[in-house]
Each structure stands twice: as structure tokens, then as C-alpha cells.
Amino acid sequence: MKNIVIFASGSGSNAEKIVEHFRGSTAVKIAHIFCNNPEAGVIERAKRLDIPCSLFSREEYRNGALLRKMQSLQTDWIVLAGFLWLIPSEYVQAFPQRIINLHPALLPKFGGKGMYGHFVHEAVVAAGETESGITIHYVNEHYDEGAIIFQSSFPVLPSDTPEDVAKKGQVLEHRDFPKVIENLVLPTTP
Ligand code: GAR
User: Best substitution site from 7, 13, 30, 102 to test ligand 1's pocket, by max atoms within 8 Å of Cβ?
Assistant: First the structure.
């Protein structure tokens, strides 16, 4: 059994899709959701989905307590689903090529510190892009710079608002992220 731990800071719609995707799997377990924001919708979703969920402080994040907890859960993969803090290097070293992030744009465009959620979609529209999309990538010590695993895209129309772009991106996130995770965690042998 492969244990996946999800980190989330927001609404948790992607976390929910991932949980649903692996529900009943005998090979993959969503072992825990960790959240750094007491106001986040993901906490209520986790309750409803019956997945253990813990809030953590910046101190626990930095002093090794959270990392130890993940090791005690026998975590194999860490999936960032709308998680907004930078991942400290101890985590990257403890889980080499085992932490992945979802980003709501076509990296390397529109990434980096402060580029998250609606800021990304506003920047895409302001730049007059004719295309945007989603990126799933490995996490390193820098925001949005790890190797890209998967991208999918959609057209941005001149009339599209940032909200329209967000909606189109979310459709792709919900469709693609769980499958990409499955392919990584359970690679098929040739
Ligand atoms: C998603 O759109 C994800 O791509 C984005 O946050 C949203 C979380 O939505 N992540 C980032 O911007 C990370 N830089 P959710 O809480 O409904 O899953």
C-alpha cells in the first residue's frame, strides 16, 4: 500500500477529487490531509470524506514535528493541492522526487512567490495570453521550479475574465491531477 499525504491551504476541491479517485483502492491510501489554515474549507471536506485531517502551525512545520509525523504515517508521497507555503529543504531531502505540486498556469510562465490562485488568472488575462493551463511538477526548494511532469491547456478568449480562466483551469485540474498521481504512484511496468 502506498500512503499519500495531502497538504492544502484552501477550499480543498482538488483534495476531494483525489480522495474520491482512490476511494476503495487496495494499492493507494490517502492517509492524511495536513492544513496550515484554520479557516480553510478543506477541513470540513476532510470530515465529510472521513479522512484524518490535522492543522499545523508554522513552528511545527519548521521544527521537524510535522516531518516526524509524516514519517510515522509511513508517507510515500506528498501531494500539494492548493498549498501556499514554500517547502523547506528538509522535506525535499526526506522525500526526493516524492513531493508534487499543482499549479494553475503553464509554468514557467506565471509562477513564483505570490503567484497563486486568482493572482495567476488575473496576470494571465492582463498579459493578453491566448492560452493557459495547469502544470503538475516535482517540488524543489524554489517556488514552482521543479521538473515538470504534466501540463494541459485551454484557450483563453479575449472576452474571458480571470474567473472564466479559473473555471476552465479547475475543470482540467479535477480531470487530470488524480490520474497523474496514479501514474506516478503506481507506474505500470513495461
Ligand atoms: C488550485 O487551482 C491550485 O492550482 C492552486 O490553488 C487552487 C486550490 O484549489 N494552487 C496554487 O495556486 C499554488 N501556487 P482547491 O483548494 O479548490 O483545490
Answer: 102
Sign of CA dihedral 187, 8, 75, 25: negative
For 48-101, write each residue's pLDDT tens digit. Answer: 999 999 999 999 999 999 999 999 999 999 999 999 999 999 999 999 999 999
Triad 104, 7, 62: Cα angle to 5°: 115
Residues acting as catalytic residues: 103
C-alpha distance across the termini of the chain, in Å: 21
Cell numbers for 78? 506528498
Q: How far, in Å, from the CA of 81 to the mean position of ligand 1?
A: 6
pLDDT digits (tens, 9 = 90+) for 10-19: 999 999 999 9
Q: The whole model's pTM is what? A: 0.96
Which of 173, 175, 176, 180 for mutating ligand 1's site (highest number of atoms within 8 Å of CB)? 173
